[in-house]
Amino acid sequence: AEGFAGLAENERFIKKNNFDSSKLVKGAIYVHAGFTVKDELLVKARELSDKYNALLAIHTEEGLVDVYHSIERYGVRPVERLYRAGFLGPRTHLVHAVHTTDEELELIKKTGSHVAHNPTSNMLNAVGVARVPDMLKLGINVGLGNDGYVFDHFEVMRVAFLVHKVWRRDPRVMSPLQVFEMATVNVAKMFHLNDQLGSIEPGKRADLVVLKPRTPNTPVNSQTIYAHLVNTFSSRDVDTVIVDGKFVLRNNKLVNIDEEKTVDYVHGVVERFWDNLISKGSPQINYVKD
Questions:
Q1: Exposed, middle or buried by CB within 10 Å (0-12, 13-18, 19+), for 215?
Q2: Could you say which of 61, 153, 267, 281 is the most buried, measured as most Cβ atoms within 10 Å of its Cβ?
Q3: What is the pLDDT of residues 203-218, one digit of tens each?
Q4: What is the dihedral of CA 43, 46, 52, 54, to 10 degrees?
Q5: Is 262 helix (H, G, I), strand (E, B) or coil?
Q6: What are phi and psi of 209, to 5 degrees?
Q7: Which strands sit side by side in the sheet containing 238-243, from one edge to the other?
Q8: If DSSP codes are grouped into helix, strand and coil, which group holds residue 215?
Q9: Residue 284: its pLDDT value, please?
Q10: Please, where are the H alpha helices in the chain?
Q11: SS3 helix, strand, coil % of the chain, rounded to 5?
Q12: What confidence score (pLDDT) does residue 283 get?
């Protein structure tokens, strides 16, 4: 019941926001994971995605529990189950996809589904390392995310750059350019916004980040810039942020909001949310305790 109530809220938000070109925040249909939802919910989510041309996402094979549950309950691995349910497709994001087989990667490629790679989260939960180099070779679009752990995207890029090298014991795996593309143009493709965002080109929206590196160790030029973006620079070097042509950060200061008041407000909202979560009953309490 909670799952279908969540889909109803998705639909309400999508109808309110997705067809207003002036709104930058859009709705999508994100269900949790294969081991927490039944096929009926997957089918309904797909129907809503088709109805509103909305994005779909699900945590897939983050850990082996998802694989074991799918085989035991449905007789197939998670990606094949999603394929049979009609859940895969060009609007679908598979979050993590750590334990995919060759056959599952072929299904992802065949359907044009996307993969959200979250290396910092995967390291935190010790679930393994996704086969991103193999995915990229197959032509699967892989975008870089965090799944709620480490919001400094420079750090996330650095982890993505390094973890596959040590996992494969091969320093040639994952170039700086590949990692930077995963953080920019590939994400724009995932959200079907690559005609508007992801790169600096005539006709695209002016979403820009200006860096002022404090202490570059080696020369910064066209041959070294991607390596610096992945290896050297950090969020501390961000001086200016422009969203859709409008300044939101200038000289390292927010220009449209009172930062102190905003932080206080957000903390209050989080505290109320947390208190409400705990007071709803034992399942939520057990989840928090675990």
A1: exposed
A2: 61
A3: 999 999 999 998 778 8
A4: 150
A5: helix
A6: -125, 125
A7: 208-211, 238-243, 246-250, 253-254
A8: coil
A9: 43
A10: 2-17, 39-52, 64-74, 78-84, 102-111, 119-125, 132-138, 153-168, 176-183, 185-190, 225-231, 259-279, 282-289
A11: 50, 15, 40
A12: 43
pLDDT for 289 equals: 39
Structural contact between residues 80 and 58, judged by C-beta atoms closer than 8 angstroms: no
Sequence letter at residue 243: V
Query: Which residues of the chain are modeled with pLDDT < 50?
Result: 282-290
Please check whether residue 152 is in contact with residue 183, taking contact to mean a CB–CB distance below 8 angstroms: no
- The token duo for 27 is 């709705």
DSSP helix/strand/coil, 59:
strand
Q: What is the pLDDT of residues 1-46, one digit of tens each?
A: 788 999 999 999 999 999 998 899 999 999 999 999 999 999 999 9
Looking at domain 2-204, its CATH class is alpha beta
